[in-house]
Amino acid sequence: MTIRIVGVFAWAGATQIVHGLAMLAAALRYRTLVPFFLLLTLVERSVMTLNWWVLKPGVADHRPPETWATLVLLPVIAFFLIRSIARRSEPA
């Protein structure tokens, strides 16, 4: 049983590393993909926030700091997503 749990954490960590490397590549080299990754991040954080605050609000008596930070980050990510899309639509 313990080996399965460790395997799941290893798998989750591997996917996060690949996701982070793809985001880094988009930021440094493939800038046309930046709005796509911002949209993915916005959807991911929105689902996490929905889960923490609406679907399962009473699961824990204590909320980790990330639940509060995500509430701040959602409008920030949305702001930069809108800016990145607006910048692409401007004439060069």
> Sheet bearing the most strands, described?
none
What is the number of strand segments?
0
Q: What integer value in Å does the Rg equal? A: 17 Å
Beta-strand content estimate: under 5%
> What is the end-to-end distance?
58 Å
Which stretches are poorly predicted, pLDDT < 50 over at least 5 residues?
none
Total discrete domains = 1
Please count the helical segments: 3
Q: Per the principal axes of the C-alpha atoms, what is the gross shape?
A: flat
Topology pattern, helix = H, strand = E: HHH
Give the oligomer, counting copies of the same chain as homo and different chains as hetero. single chain
Q: What this model shows, in words?
A:
This protein has 92 residues and is an all-alpha fold. It has one domain (2-89). The protein is built from three helices and no strands. Helix 2 (34-55) runs antiparallel to helix 3 (65-89). It is flat and about 55 Å long.
Structure at a glance:
This protein has 92 residues and is mainly alpha-helical. It has helices at 2-28, 34-55, 65-89.
Question: Which key phrases capture this entry?
Answer:
92 residues; mainly alpha; 3 helices; 80% helix
Question: What is the topological layout?
Answer:
Blueprint: H1 2-28, H2 34-55, H3 65-89
Helix pairs in contact: 2-3
